[in-house]
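Exercise 7. Predict the joint structure of the components listed below.
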Amino acid sequence: MIDVAQVRELIELMVEHGLGEIRIRQEDSSITLRRGPTGEVMMYPQQMPMLPMGGAFPSGAVAPAAESAAQPLEDEGLLAIKSPMVGTFYAGPDPQSPPFLTIGAEVNPDSPVCIIEAMKVFNEIKAEVTGRVERVLVKNEQAVEFGQTLMLVRPRS
Amino acid sequence: MTSGSVISMTAEELLRGWQPLRVGRRIEVHAELPSTNTAALVAAENRDADGLVVMADYQAGGRGRLGRIWHSPRRASVLCSVLLVMDDPSAATPRGNPDLQTTSADDPGIGGRLTLLAAVSVCAAVRQATEITPSIKWPNDIFVGGRKMGGILIESRSLGGRMRAWVIGIGLNCHQQAGHFSPELRETATSLDLAASHPIDRTAVARELLRALDARLSDPASPSDRVLHDEWSRYALPIGHRVRLRCDGREYAGQTLAVEPHGGLIVQCDGGIRKWFDPQRTTLL
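Solution:
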């Protein structure tokens, strides 16, 4: 019997210890969890042939690499607007509306930056900084991590 | 079957027979609004507005998740938004909101709790007011007879300082007939009238909804997360139903093998693989 909580725990163990693959056999069932090149975990029942590493895995997953990419720019005196949660990034209030912010926009601490959705809860995120938007580092509907840099702002001098 | 009960409801009728502790201390009933959620968010500027209920007979700009328009004839639906104004833990830790970081299955945070709580309240209310027992499709779509009967849209916004507004928006189809749905929705949407064998009293459904929400929101410690989890699980659609999902920018379709309210889904995807879908990164389409 597949148990979501057990699978989640196993995945967390894989990530924590950097494991590429776990095989579990319990009574009459067996599963294999394998991490793809982007870190995404796929689960296979025992009777299913193992897929080769590489191209068989979804390639659309987004690795949380924006943080490291943003760091040098932050060193140049730019302020980072970071995601306060894990979820899906929406640039505007709804698909029909323009994005809250584009490059060059002036922001203040109360300016809405984006919506981040998790479990159908849509959270409006505010800039909390003052300045001009220099870079937008994520795309609409992209999955974002906790603490991931969303935008870089040149502080008002 | 159809019902003749399509008159506007009043706050007095909604409060008949019960006394709200939080949800419904103030009730606004409008003939028409662009969006009850937007009206409730605007009202949040008044910090004493916690528990406000905004209802409308018609929403000109009613929207569902992802901005999808919620079509409804006048006085055919229960359209309701509940405003909650609560302490915002992010104010103490800027850039790192421990409440909004709902990554733990053991600590779903306020948003995750409200998602479950709203869905459970809808099911309990409909069951109380009608002969129908709805089901929940993860995480909070409301289904009757395999078709979508209602939707929930929760929005939150910082109010500055330590306060944050949460709005639970609920839309329930009551008096719609098949012809009210657009052709692409006709096979997948339903209403209480269509599903019931007796007339539906829209005011009674709305009244029970407010009572159910008030019962679950007036005491932050009750119901416990465990009780809420169990209640959600009792109403959840049985595993094996089809889902379309978007996760990390890709779309998937398949059949559910396991569903946990805060743990996500395991899906037998079309094409062979089984995949666990992280609830924080997954959107039901």
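Discussion. Confidence is low (pLDDT under 50) at residues 1-5, 92-107 of chain B.
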